[in-house]
Amino acid sequence: MSRLAVSGGEPIRSPSKVWPSWPVPSERAVELVLEVVRSGRWADGGPKERQFAQAFAEFSGARYCVPVANGTVAIQLALEAVDIGAYDEVIVPGQTWQATAAACIDVNAVPILVDIDPETYCVDAAGAEAAITPRTRAIIVTHLYGAMADMDALPQLARRHGLKLIEDCAHQHGSQWRGKGVGGLGDVGAFSLQLSKVLTSGEGGVTLTNSWELMQRLHSLRNCGRPFQTGSPTVQSGNFRITELQAALLLAQMESMDARVDRRDGNAQYLNRQLGEIPGIRPMKRYSQITRQSYYCFAFRFSSADWDGIGVAAFRQALGAETGLRVETTYEPLNACALYQPHTKRRHRLNEEYWRAIDPSRFELPVCQKAFADEAVVIGHPFLLGDRADMDEVAKAVEKIYDNREELRYLA
Ligand SMILES: Cc1ncc(COP(=O)(O)O)c(C=O)c1O
Q1: Strands across the sheet containing 327-328
Q2: pLDDT tens-digit series, residues 169-179
Q3: Pair 207, 218: CB distance under 8 Å
Q4: Ligand 1 atom 10 nearest Cα
Q5: Considering the domain boundaries, does residue 209 fall inside one?
Q6: Is the pLDDT of residue 68 over 80?
Q7: Ligand 1 midpoint to CA 340 (Å)
Q8: Are 358 and 105 in contact (CB under 8 A)?
Q9: Per residue in 354-399, pLDDT tens?
Q10: What is the pTM of this model?
Q11: Which residues face 91 on adjacent strands?
């Protein structure tokens, strides 16, 4: 008789129990949005946007916050703010959403894809150093999967080589390294506020910086080049602003942001302690310098060798069936990613050398590939808003699958 839910057995979590969902509509959001609707001030630069920008800067411990149209544009404007342009090389992790590299190409720079640290799935500092050439101008770090890049080593590396450091924090609103918020650890931080993110206005983005000069440039870049104030520089640019309606939604969420980030972090640490006891399961590395970890995705590593050769895809399916959660793998490595195809746009053909330089397939990313194909188990953040009993069910589900791995091996 089958025991595993994936082959008809009773699941660990009753299908009648629902997981927390995201986003959570709140009366406060309705109230603030209505205020905006009634005010007739629907465009950018209104009081709610100013309040939100101040609240997010304070929450992140950064001096300045400049809201922008989305997370992709946030990276693009961050690059433009630090003056990255044609043929400049930018070091980009091979494991990240395609936007991180696409933004580089959109400013005519060359993304140099670098492999990740197998312990964090974030860019490897030694790999980044080895990729530096006389053309390198910047490093983009993406913190993701409930882990952070080494933010002692990478800022030091950038300083040593005179490089700009940009943080892609789309997965990490509220993470802290030595008590300082992500997004303010380098020159510019870029965040997405797209619907699935832990702070969202449906679409939207944010840039953070501690530099007065960069803040002025970011303001100008998002606003058709208009000077931030009389006497500020003018920059050629387009319209990348957000609306006051988006700001109202964001402002409402800021009131409970700390509580939600802490709840997810507490639950994730609790779950990781249990998962770490199960053979062949390794939580992501949490550096001791991390004083708060934010989760867009919770991840852990599965070792097929410790599970009698069962593949991670079969494990993910079994875990999904036991828990009712959607269990996935990482993003596709950028050297073979269906959505990262620089050669499909003729405007990227600046010249033949550039065309060859932006070919993603020229980079080797074995650690990214192993994570994606053989190892990663990734679950979206809403379940982390549950309680400890919910976390126990996830751990129990993994234990149950391990105890019944013979059945799973047979099925697979
Ligand atoms: C790591 C990362 N960077 C950038 C982005 C782009 O953000 P947006 O979708 O708001 O443009 C995302 C979105 O998922 C992301 O996950």
Answers
A1: 281-283, 297-302, 376-380, 327-328
A2: 999 999 999 99
A3: yes
A4: 71
A5: yes
A6: yes
A7: 13
A8: yes
A9: 999 999 999 999 999 999 999 999 999 999 999 999 999 999 999 9
A10: 0.97
A11: 112, 139
Ligand 1: nearest atom to the Cα of 168: 3
Q: What is the DSSP letter of 353?
A: H
Is 151:176 a contact under the CB 8 Å cutoff?
Answer: no
> Closest ligand 1 atom to the C-alpha of 205?
10
- What is the CATH number for 251? 3.40.640.10
CA of 279 to the centre of ligand 1 (A): 33
Say how many domains are in the chain.
Answer: 1
In a domain? residue 391: no
18 in any annotated domain: no
> Distance from the CA of 201 to the center of ligand 1, in angstroms?
13
Region 50-64: mean pLDDT is 98
Cα distance between residue 367 and residue 126, in whole Å: 14
Task: For a ligand 1 pocket test, name from 192, 199, 207, 240 the mutation site with the most ligand atoms within 8 angstroms of its C-beta.
Answer: 192
| Average pLDDT value over all residues in the chain | 97
71 Cα: distance to centroid of ligand 1 (angstroms): 5
- Name the amino acid, one letter, at 260: R
Which residues form ligand 1's pocket by a CB distance below 6 Å?
70-72, 96-97, 99-100, 142, 144, 168, 170-171, 192, 194, 205
Q: Which atom of ligand 1 is nearest to the CA of 331?
A: 16
Domain extent, residue 173, equals 27-256
Residue 328 Cα distances to 85, 144, 147, 315, 319, angstroms: 36, 14, 17, 10, 10
- Axis crossing angle, helix 27-39 with helix 244-254, rounded to the nearest 10: 150
Phi and psi angles of residue 31, each rounded to the nearest 5 degrees, phi first = -60, -45
Query: Is the residue at 49 inside a domain?
Result: yes
- The beta strand positions in 97-204, using DSSP E, are 110-114, 136-142, 164-168, 176-177, 180-181, 188-192
Instruction: Quote the CA–CA distance of 398 and 391 in Å, as a whole number.
Output: 11
Question: Looking at residue 2, what is its pLDDT?
Answer: 73
